[in-house]
Amino acid sequence: MRRLLRSLRSRRLAVWLLGALVGYAAVAAALDVREAFSAPPFVVLAALVAMSTAACAWERSARAVSMLRVGVVTQRQVDHLREHPATVIPLAEEGPRDVSAAAGALRSLGFRVTAGERMAEGRRHRWGALGSPLFHWSLALLIVVIALGQLTRAEGLIGIATGDTKSDVREAYGVLEAGPLHGGLSGASITVDRMEAEYTRNGIEYGPTPYVRVVSATGDPLAEGFVHTNAPLRYGSTVIHMNGYGLAAKVRLDVDGTSSAEEILLDYADDDSGRIVPRDLAVLDASGQPAVSLLIDADASSRTPALLVRYAEGAGDPRSSGAMEASIAEGESVALPGGVSLTADRLTSYARLAVVDDWSVPFIYALFLTGVMGLAAAILTPPSTARVLFVEGDGGPAWHVVVTGWRRQSGASESVHAALEAAAGANGGERP
Question: Residue 252 and residue 328: Cα distance in Å, rounded?
Fold first, then answer.
């Protein structure tokens, strides 16, 4: 077990694992791999990184606990200081013969001191010892939470026409990605009550903005409000973001006496031209063969909302030059080949919403903040310890001194030695 812990807290192993994790994420992003962060390779790498970080955190926690134990000096530490001091400060002939003067010098530098007749120990910023383990534990838990979040989250795009309601079920989504451990969608009702063409808040214009209302499967109100950039709608572990908007056409198809309703969502082009991307629609007859092929677009030449319908008989290409076309406004119908009739029952706008169910987000933020606090404490307030032992040897009385925890503050270490030398009445310490 000790060998395993020693291997896991190896800095070299940690660097290699982090490199592999970052490399995997970079490749997955470059290749646009779907569900890359819930796949087994990511989960295994994340688990190994978390275990390595936890082993490092355990080691630093034990060290921090020992540093917090003020005044607890073992005989082994005393013997080591007597035989292997970092600095020897000889005492003047009329100088002190104990460590009381050394204790005073350490207190003047802000150390918290415990002293006996022959031994004085000063500690400074001792609570800073918690910074490193706090950072490492936060990092280990952050990796675990991110991995579990990827396994249990769900994210999808759902298009809802103004005034319509759709349930939070798999069939309602155009695109849906769910982790293998996601428990299932809520079944809540999501309604777009209205769409503000030019929504302004606090002097900022957000453009077309939907007012969204969410009701639970049992009818309890969950959340409602305008959804726009940096203002998602939240309820429980679910967040609804505005992803886009477009035109919605509710049409009715009559084929051989059978009527069916279709919802056609038309998106704007990505080139900011205001152009609508047309939608293809194939209508089958009673035998399952193509009766007519449709290309449905917005009629830009009409002063009122209208659909431009291009059509070709059977499996023909409605984009060809020989295709026929008709413009229909809301409530109008057009007779198509194959005994098909198309009626525009309703023309309106729609909101494309990104619905994310992810419980891990607040914990990720909290652990990130805790990790930053631990890192700041470790860097800005590193703990330091100074031990002074009075020794009467062949070379005369002297103070044996060791100062630890000043790796980044060599000047501060020198100030400790200078204060002790002044208290000893010495001209300078000797560094073995």
Answer: 12
pLDDT in tens, 232-276: 999 999 999 999 998 999 999 998 888 999 899 988 776 666 677
Residue 32 lies in a domain: yes
The residues with which 297 forms a beta bridge, in sequence order, are 308
Same domain, 39 and 140: yes
Asked if 126 and 377 count as a contact pair (C-beta separation under 8 A), the reply is no
240 is a domain residue = yes
**pTM: predicted TM-score of the whole model, two decimal places:** 0.73
CA distance 6 to 14: 12
pLDDT in tens, 354-405: 999 999 999 999 999 999 999 999 888 888 888 999 998 777 899 999 888 7
Residues 195 and 239 in one domain: yes
Q: Which domain holds residue 17?
A: 2-59+133-151
**10 closest CA partner among 52, 64, 54, 49:** 52
What is the C-alpha to C-alpha distance for residues 16 and 432, in angstroms, rounded to an integer?
A: 39
The Cα–Cα gap between 329 and 345 comes to: 9
Q: Clarify whether residues 43 and 143 are in a common domain.
A: yes
